[in-house]
Amino acid sequence: MSALERLREAQALAAEGRRRDIADGREVVGTFSPPVPPPELIEAAGATPYRLLENRGPDADLRGMGALGRDTCSFCRSVLGSAILDPPPITCIASGTVCDRLRHMTDAWPAATGLPLYTVAVPRTREVPGQVPVLAEEFRLFASEISSRTGTPVTKTRLTEAIKRGNRCREVLTALDELRRESPPRLSGGEFLDVVRASHALSTSEFLELADGLIAKIRSREPMKRRPVRILLVGPTLTDGDRDVVRMAEVDCGAAIVGDLTDSGSLGYGEPVSEDRDPFTALAEQVLAHPILTAPLKPSTAFRDAFRRALQDGRPDGVVYRGVPFCRPFNSEAVPLRELSPVPFLDLRVEATGASGQVRTRLGAFLEAIEARLHFARENTR
Ligand code: SF4
Fold first, then answer.
1. From 68, 75, 350, mutation site for ligand 1 pocket: most ligand atoms within 8 A of C-beta
2. Interval 120-165: pLDDT, tens
3. Alpha carbon of 193 to ligand 1 centroid (Å)
4. What is the pLDDT of residues 261-272, one digit of tens each?
5. Cα–Cα distance between 152 and 170 in angstroms, integer?
6. Fewest Cβ atoms nearer than 10 Å: which of 70, 285, 300, 336?
């Protein structure tokens, strides 16, 4: 079995592992959206973070709609509805105030599942100076709340160790991100998203053990024979089983997702956290520098800068913006991002329950038009 297959299998079995942890008396903390609360805080308190991205299809969507109303994004409906249908292996929930709809969903969670909720307040703007100590204090409070459940205090030593493990995971993911940007790439966008997903479902130690040798294996692969159409994917979190657009682009149409701005991918781990300073401050600095769009962190300058960098680094031939209905943070950015994009830009709205045939047709036509443009440009340079 390859290192990639081992990771995929471990991710598929992660829920069973967390159930065993709970039976052994360990706390498992469900989270929704990185980077708040930072998983390092949860690990330093002797608990295991477990990212909640289960999607149990149309029945879950209906359950979520019943609890949250029709005008909620299908990400929130699917995640909450899935937990109502099939309770996840967690003992409590922790969430940052990163998006109004997510807040509404997490507030509904205790009544729907009976589990306690811990909330970390994220500053509403990056513009006002002095936000780092405020967020660092929020992290201290959160650490003490989780510690009171586990009985393990979050000391500076434990937190610095957790940050070091988190940074080693970031190194692996960054190296893989670079391999999918090669021309032609050695790693597909779908494979990269699988690895990031595994890093969110497993503890850092489990992930690092299984990822050992993965980079060398991928580097030793032969690159793809032909140059595929290169795509940058932008949009909100993809739930499990919600990869229709990725599959359609890569498997059905032969394109390659060489970069992404989603927290299921390259926004899901962020830049390294400083290991040399007060660890709470270091985590607060890293979060405030992160281009989170799903936060009320206005203005969206950091996200637009990240978009410009992703265009520069990935050299995509086109941008696929995959939004979901009722997602205000991302949908309101689609127009400014289109204006910034020097390459063709496709704006799609896809429910987490699955993409329609119409989405398939639009995506296929978009990729064909890019292919034709590239062919024409090659012919003209001969
Ligand atoms: S960012 Fe969009 S998809 Fe994500 S929770 Fe907020 S509204 Fe829903």
1. 75
2. 988 877 777 888 999 999 999 999 999 999 999 999 999 999 999 9
3. 18
4. 998 999 888 899
5. 25
6. 70
The pTM score is 0.94
Residues near 80 by beta carbon (within 8 Å), at least 6 away in sequence: 63, 64, 67, 68, 105, 108, 109, 112
Tell me the best of 79, 264, 330, 331 to mutate to test the pocket of ligand 1, counting ligand atoms within 8 Å of each CB and taking the most: 330
User: Residue type at 377?
Assistant: A
Q: DSSP character for 250?
A: I
* Cα 75 to averaged position of ligand 1 atoms, centre (Å): 6
Contact 237 CB / ligand 1 (< 6 Å): yes
Number of residues written out for the chain? 382
Which of the 8 DSSP states describes residue 124? S
Tell me: the pLDDT tens digits for 284-315? 999 988 887 555 556 678 888 999 999 999 99
Nearest atom within ligand 1 for CA of residue 328: 7
Q: Give me ligand 1 centre to Cα 294, in Å.
A: 6
Q: Is the pLDDT of residue 78 over 90?
A: yes
Exposure of 184 by Cβ count < 10 A (0-12 exposed, 13-18 middle, 19+ buried)?
A: middle
The torsion angles phi and psi of 155, rounded to 5 degrees, stand at -85, 165
What helix, strand, coil percent values describe the chain, rounded to 5? 55, 10, 35
Most confident region among 106-110, 140-144, 243-247, 326-330 by mean pLDDT: 140-144
